[in-house]
Amino acid sequence: MPGYRYSGSVRLAAPRWDAKSQSECHFRTDSPQGLISWYHVYNMSTDPDDQPFRHYTTKHRIVAWISQNLFDSIVYTVRHGLLKGMKRKGGLAWLPEFIAGSTNTPEMSFWMSRDFNGCVVYDVGAFHGLLTLFFARTARQVISYEPNTRNHTRLLDNLRLNGIENVLVRKVALGSKAGIATMVAAPLMLGGASIESDTVSGLLNSNLTTVSEQVPITTLDDDIRQMSLPVPDFVKIDVEGGELAVLMGARNTLLTHKPQLFLEMHGETVNLKRKNVAALVACLNEFGYREIRHVESGLRIDAGNSSAAAEGHLYCP
Question: Which CATH superfamily is domain 6-316 in?
Fold first, then answer.
């Protein structure tokens, strides 16, 4: 799903379930132009599955340009989808659904079927707070992570517009270890901001204008302990390739409390997507999660068929 995402991550060149290899940090990497440059700099393979994966369609980019340049400061009431009836800034959800496009997707159906009443929900990769707002309607408390300054500001705006008081926003990235990193992004697609080395190089070597900022990184285990945060019942992780590092940094929480998990799959190529999901499944199994479902197909995922979930989302009840 669109949105900012962040965390520590394996290097994209070698995504393995190996603690010694988890040394890099990663944000969204799905700017099409950035990926084209990344391909020319880093990838000489002729295998189609090694070619840059197009995460943003032309429609996505057009919508982003219109939203940012014509309607960015407009406050409106959402007309459809999970946030129907709520107020927000950003996006074009004030348009009727027949113009904006249907939101009837497997992911949407998944969220509509969930009951978060009384739950503590962690939104790792909150962007403008679209799911944070949805969770906050019924959850007891929501903890949202968003380190990008512009995204963080918009997230706070959307919470204030709706008078929401059961959300704690953390302006910090989650990863496998604490640190500081430079986050680079193309201004039009701030959801694609990244601190992962290959993606940053691709952006900096492209013809795109870029913006950057220093962002702090912590682990979920450390943040829960240091900030005296409530134990999660449900954790959503949408971090454009950094899912594995977020899990590693949440090891104690996951082993001890077994919250439900929802993860979006990412990777710069189809082959990297397959490697990333295989590493995630191995990690989840290591932490005791045996029931892993692919949201889009309904398949039960294990080490033998993990490639079937290379795109889409994983859910661990």
Answer: Vaccinia Virus protein VP39 (3.40.50.150)
Whose CA is closest to 289, among 243, 238, 239?
A: 243
User: What's the pTM?
Assistant: 0.82
Residue written as token pair 């197009």: 54
Low-confidence ranges of the chain (pLDDT < 70): 1-45, 50-56, 100-102, 198-199, 201-203
Angle value at C-alpha 188, between 186 and 193, nearest 5 degrees: 40
pLDDT, tens only, 223-259: 999 999 999 999 999 987 788 999 999 999 999 999 9
Q: Where are the domains of the chain?
A: 6-316
- The strand order across the sheet containing 173-174 reads 173-174, 211-218, 179-185
Q: How far apart are CA 120 and CA 64, in angstroms?
A: 31
Query: d(Cα 147, Cα 4) in Å, to the nearest integer?
Result: 9
